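[Meeting: bench + compute handoff]

Bench side (C.D.) handed over the final construct sequence. Compute side (W.E.) agreed to return the predicted structure before the next meeting so the bench team could plan truncations. Sequence as handed over:
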Amino acid sequence: MSKPVIAVLILAVLLLLPLAVLLLISGHTTLAFDPAPAAVGMVTPVHVKLTNPHGVRRVTAFIEQNGTRNAVQETLTAPSRLFFWRKHLPPADFAFTAGKEKAPAIKDGKARLIVQTQSNDLRGTVDEIAADIDVITRPPSVLADSLQHYINQGGSELVLFTPSGYWTEAGVRVGKYTFRSFPKPGSKTERFALFAFPWDLSPETIPVVYVRNPAGSEVTAKYWFKLFPKKFRKRDLDINDAFLEKVDTQIDGSATGDLITRFLKLNGEMRRQNNQALADLRLKSADRFLWTTTFQQMMNTKVESQFADVRSYVYRGKKVDEQVHLGFDLSSVKNAPVPAANDGKIVFAENLGIYGNCIVVDHGYGLQSIYGHLSRIDVKPGESVTKGQTMGLSGSTGLAGGDHLHFSMQLDGVQINPVEWWDGHWIHDRIQSKLSGETIQDREAGPQEPTPHPKSTKRRGGKRR
């Protein structure tokens, strides 16, 4: 072989080798819906996660129906790079809207959503992901009841409503809070929602029934209600070094720093974490009532603190913190037996930060009762309990300065004033009478505000927190 030919071959290799290498290292794009769409309507948001170390230069989305592809989105995401592309780019989130507004030719029915990408390298590989979807352009509808709804701020209520059309989620929205709904016993079409008007919302907030579907369509309905605003108490609470040493060491003995800094972290950050843990237990609620009679306030107790008391913590004459106390502090004798407020099932029974040894009982349909600061727990998650059954002993664990029971209730994860649930007439009029076939066995009038039991008891001294 002559030298000129060899030289040409070498030159060709030198020119083609880099191209071969570039082709070889050109990559594919991994696509993932986040989340996978089940339906699209008129305008439905879609999110896709794109992973390619070289990036992508083009994203195209189609709705395929009856063999025809209808373009809904085409985006050039980056300048085209054939040779000098970037490496090790992080995953990217691509968001767009799909639906009839973007593809007028599609009709209600089955379809397929396809997203294609082209890698931003020499090969320009085309990859795609697809999802079977329903095209739903007709919105659902809902009709709320015509009953009277008297609501106490911080309290509870029940509304009936009838959704129709295609929907997958229905409930009540009160400001930033949402409450699930359940089928009304004995009805094939009607649903009900137990909901709260939380203590921290403006009295101007209007609760509504809502229904929505996966296509992004949502409709709401208003209903008659009268709110009774409540001005919650404000109290100063003196704390000293002895108290700080006790709670700081007991709750988080491994923490470092001065006493007041550690306390503020417990009283703020840990309080929020613990309340979120309690709220998450709503997902463990039964889809039926587990109780039949009026809820019971712990007997022979004095109310030390009420629901939604606004507490200013004072240390050495200076206010150092402010928090809202979402429950009742009920004091009795030291290590008093703590009864279940009503029939239910244990969904939590362990230590929970500021609440100390804590028990949560589920009563069904998102209604749960909370028992904190116990010195001893005698039940386990999964056990059924009956009204009045002893579950443990009162104590001063967690963020407590003296022996007492912290009692609270929550509705779908939102803590509420338990006073109403101690009142048989209120339960009958506001809850049971609205549900066909649901009756209460004891309609005795409960207290409008909890009071000490008429029989006096010897109580252990000390401040309750």
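W.E. noted at the follow-up: The chain has a mean pLDDT of 88. C.D. will use this when planning the next construct.
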